[in-house]
Amino acid sequence: MNINNPTIVILGASGLVGGTLISILKQREFPCGELRLCSSPGGTSKELTINGENYTATPFDESVFDGADIVFFSGPDDMSPQYAPKAISAGAVVIDNSAHFRLKPGVPLIIPEVNGHCIGKHSGLIANPNCSTSGLVVALAPVNRALGLEWVAASTYQAISGAGAKPKNDFIESTKAAVDSDFMKLDPGNLAFNLIPAVGSFSGVQNFSEEERLINETRKILEHPVLKVYPTCVRVPVLNVHSISVTFQTEKPFSDGEIESLLADADGVEIIDDLVNRKFPTPVGADGKDEVQVGRIRRFEENRGGMWVVADNLRKGAALNSVQIAELLLKYERAKNG
Question: Which end of the chain is flanked by fewer CB atoms within 10 Å, N or C?
Fold first, then answer.
């Protein structure tokens, strides 16, 4: 691997996450000898304008992996199992945003602020967590380290951008249509002025796929395989940024203000919790921000508390965390090579 000026490939560059990846690589001045942008397999060439700069996402061809150092997969889930092994065989390290590899044994699932020590365990493939998991775990990790978590109940309020560009555009159009028709044609199955208490596909047991991911990914990242996680994932009529209402119980009791102190010292967390002046995290306030914002921090009993967690799902929930993994990877490789 070229650790000074790596060749970077982004698959799915024309999507919401892909575009955000391009923007964040530029903002964080990530070292890049060459940047290769591709549409997802089967896609066409697309002209992109990101932060005033023009880019071209070319049609996918496997030759794009030749000489690549890091490949970001940010397209459909079915793209990763087919093409990630080919990128790895070509000598690249894959950072995959799909759900396919996250729970596979031997594949590190990384949030750098939480379990960055796992970076050296990769065999050419590193998985990026689900967009809700990232915000939740960044907020929970300091509590777990200090007090030990027994169980977590999490209700997510997930923005439409988490479903991709087309659903986001459809939502905007359906909302306009509902307003123009004076709300006479609201569809209970549509998200306009509505809530849908199901995200992803039905798992066939009790949960939807998004809820299963929240359970299993949280356990894996926190290295807490018996943690009890009770999720309910809800799609809400918000354009961007996921929010989570969290209740938790710890093994050790904690005092008033102790959770705030733990979070104040945590990397990647911003506390906004001024109830008198009604200042707390909101999706609009967190849009475009890198930090996981936490407010409504409460102590219900001596070992039970709650908080409100808000994180930009396109950034910390996907693209930013992917870039942070890449930064950590280069740091690890430089240290390993002396």
Answer: C
In sign, the C-alpha dihedral spanning 96, 98, 102, 106 is negative
- 224 a catalytic residue: no
Q: Spot the catalytic one: 100, 122, 224, 242.
A: 242
Q: Are residues 44 and 183 in the same domain?
A: no
Shared domain check, 295 and 168: yes
Would residue 2 count as lying in a domain? no
Q: How far apart are CA 226 and CA 120, in angstroms?
A: 24
Q: Which residues of the chain have pLDDT under 50?
A: none
Is 62 strand, coil or helix? Answer: helix
How close are the terminal C-alpha atoms of the chain, in Å? 14
Rounded to whole angstroms, the Cα distance separating 320 from 323 reads: 5
143 domain-assigned? yes
Residues 187 and 232 in one domain: yes
pLDDT digits (tens, 9 = 90+) for 85-104: 999 999 999 999 999 999 99
181 shares its domain with 328: no
Q: How many folded domains does the chain comprise?
A: 2
CB 30 within 8 A of CB 23: no
Could you tell me which residues come within 8 angstroms of residue 95 by beta carbon, excluding any fewer than 6 positions away? 70, 71, 72, 73, 126, 128, 322, 325, 326, 329
Main-chain phi, psi angles of 219, to 5 degrees: -60, -45
Please report the pLDDT score of residue 78 as a whole number: 87
Amino acid at 272: I
pLDDT of residue 165: 82
Q: Exactly one of 118, 131, 224, 233 is catalytic; name it.
A: 131
pLDDT at 198: 87
Do both 154 and 274 map to the same domain?
yes
Three-class DSSP category at 208: strand
pLDDT at 183 (0 to 100) = 63
119 with 152, same domain: the answer is no
What pLDDT does residue 184 have? 59
- On the CB side of 119, CA atoms within 13 Å amount to 22
**pLDDT value at residue 148:** 98
58: DSSP letter: B
For the chain, how many helices (H) and strands (E)? 9, 13
242 noted as active-site residue = yes
